[in-house]
Specification:
It is built from eight helices and 14 strands. By secondary structure, the protein is α/β, with parallel strands linked by helices.
């Protein structure tokens, strides 16, 4: 088993708090890279934000995941690359409970998990391709890597990267990525959407609110306040 060097870096708590207050899709308005394939999707509920601790596990050996559990710290996300095996589950109830006890905030598997009812009861956010009843076992064979780069849903993830997801999907943000400006845009968008909800309910058109109609050089669509009534409303 290959073990890569992994130097932990601290994330700015204020940045993490701002991320917890927004939806990942609000960042997705501006990003094209780092968006994990929807084939790796949320199997349990809950928003997830944390730093990746990576495992590449190409064979059905449970040992690499069991060993990396001892390395998890509060705020980590256990990220497992099964290297194309979408049949044998490498995470179940006991792995999830051990990860949660270590302070992990989520688990991401480009592969399969099991014990889905128990995973949902535990409540730890879990992302994977699906479930199955066949599992890894202790084989102690070579080929695994700890803390190296992995591929999750066609995205390269490195130890220490931020994993950010909810029921809509999952993204990877490099540990060195400057988030302040992007978060400012996302926060402004979400604040504006509060007003838009009210205006849409009053009959405004989305193309008018977001500028699409203006960009096409069209006049504004009539709203409920512009429409003449032919009689009393019901």
């Amino acid at each position: 088993m290959i073990r890569h060097d992994f130097k932990r870096t601290s994330n700015d708590p204020a940045i993490l708090d701002r991320m917890r207050a927004i939806q990942p899709a609000s960042l997705g308005h501006y990003l094209t890279e780092g968006i994990v394939s929807p084939a790796v999707h949320a199997l349990t509920s809950g928003k997830m934000i944390g730093r990746a601790v990576t495992v590449r596990q190409p064979l059905p050996d449970a040992l690499p995941v069991h060993l990396v559990l001892d390395e998890l710290q509060p705020g980590d996300v256990l990220v497992i690359d099964r290297a194309g095996d979408h049949h044998i589950a490498c995470v179940g109830e006991m792995v999830a409970r051990a990860a949660q006890a270590a302070g992990a905030v989520g688990i991401v598997v480009d592969g399969i998990v099991t014990d889905i009812e128990e995973l949902r009861e535990i409540g730890l956010p879990v992302y994977a391709r699906g479930t199955n009843v066949v599992t890894t076992r202790l084989l102690q064979v070579p080929g695994a890597e700890l803390f190296g780069p992995v591929i999750i849903g066609n995205v390269i993830v490195r130890a220490g990267d931020l994993m950010f997801g909810d029921a809509n999907g999952l993204m990877r943000l490099p540990a060195t990525f400057e988030l302040s400006e992007l978060l400012g845009k996302a926060e402004a968008d979400e604040a504006r959407e509060v007003e838009w909800r009210c205006r849409l309910a009053s009959g405004a058109g989305l193309a008018d609110l977001n500028g699409a109609r203006r960009a096409q050089g069209q006049s504004a669509a009539p709203t409920s306040s512009h429409i003449k009534s032919n009689g009393p409303s019901p």
